[in-house]
Amino acid sequence: MSSIRPWRDIARRTSRQIMVGKVPVGGTAPITVQTMTNTLTSDAAATIAQIRRCEDAGVDLIRVSCPDEASTAALREIVRAAEVPIVADIHFHYKRALEAADAGAACLRINPGNIGSSDRVAEVVRAAKANGCAIRIGVNAGSLERDLLEKYGEPCPEALVESALDHIKLLQDHDFHEYKVAVKASDVFLAVAAYMQLAEAVDCPLHLGITEAGGLIGGTVKSSIGIGNLLWAGIGDTIRVSLSAEPEEEVRVGYEILKSLGLRTRGVRVVSCPSCARQGFDVIRTVEKLEDALQHIKTPMSLSVLGCVVNGPGEARETDIGITGGGNGKHMVYLSGVTDHHVQDADMIGHIVSLVEAKAAEIEAGQSVSMDVAHGKAA
């Protein structure tokens, strides 16, 4: 059946599906959102607390670094406490991979080429098979093999893809096929080109990311351009937004990227104006307060916050709840796209939060449908 809004259609690349614990990755499964803890993994309590915050933000998979025995020793407790599958990040020390698999990690993030000899790779594969672990091959422009740098002269898409294919072969030679692959770079152009080439060469799930993207604002922009470009082209099965910010912020940004493309929905989608001299209330501060007050809402729905009547009524017709600034501190509230009542400045934040909570409860109970569904903006 043809889409009524073909300009919104994204034809996803067909990839084979693997399981990371209980979470399917690839195929027709929803694109998953990942992050990585920054606590010492050996401090199980601190790591679990951080994982809880990420779970509240909606994370699907969480990676923890396992650089030493103390980390893998704590991993069993962390895995038991987490509600989402845990990916163990392994570099160089193959024994950490064996310990992580035995401790219950759902996935091992490794570069087979830096684990050591073929015998060591075989040991890691046996441990992964025995414990039902997937493997994520992580190629990074900042740590390419010396022979590839000599061959190509610098990190380039062809070098990243060749590295990925070499690592894939190491796993396939040991009859292991439960893997996903990333070819990350901090250069957006390099990363996007490498992923596009790799997508043509393999059928495995792809883990997207712009590595070392930067701080919250700069990194969000770079990640949105790079990851968004690829997702729009139908490429990508799981994403991690790499920010110099707390991991729960990475999760929120990841969801916003997916929400903007209609690939996943979670929580309140806010439509708001940049504000100007026409505004009937302080739009910027109002949106800040509402976004903070509505973080607990997980039901997909929409809210428009517009400062004046120029675009306010039009945007409100497309959202579940809307507010448009009026004169003398008296503002119009819209419900399901229809004008409903007025609210005064002093009562506005609490009133809107109450309306959103009530609407979310109605949607969850099946008593109403989000306007995003009615207008084809939900996926």
Protein model, in words:
This protein has helices spanning 44-57, 69-81, 94-103, 112-115, 118-131, 146-152, 157-172, 188-201, 216-232, 247-260, 283-293, 312-316, 348-364, 371-374, and strands at residues 18-20, 23-25, 32-36, 61-65, 86-89, 107-110, 134-140, 179-184, 207-208, 238-240, 268-272, 301-306, 321-324, 330-335, 338-344. Helix 1 (44-57) crosses helix 2 and helix 7 (157-172) crosses helix 8 (188-201). With 379 residues, the protein is α/β, with parallel strands linked by helices. The chain has 14 helices and 15 strands. The strands form three sheets. The protein has an eight-stranded parallel sheet. A five-stranded mixed sheet has the order 11-12-13-14-15. Strands 1-2 form a two-stranded antiparallel sheet. It starts with 17 loop residues before the first strand and ends in a 5-residue tail after the last helix.
What structural class do helix, strand and pairing data support? alpha/beta
Instruction: Kindly report how far apart the N and C termini lie.
Output: 16 Å
Averaged pLDDT: 94
Q: Let me know the largest β-sheet.
A: 8 strands, parallel
Q: Please give the order of strands in the largest beta sheet.
A: 8-7-6-5-4-3-10-9
Number of extended strands: 15
Integer-rounded radius of gyration: 23 Å
Globally, the shape reads elongated
Which strand-content bin applies to the residues?
15-25%
Portion of residues in helices? 40-55%
Q: What are the segments in which pLDDT stays under 50 over at least 5 consecutive residues?
A: none
Question: What assembly state would you assign to the polypeptide chains in this entry?
Answer: single chain
SSE order, as H and E?
Answer: EEEHEHEHEHHEHHEHEHEHEHEHEEEHH
Number of helices: 14
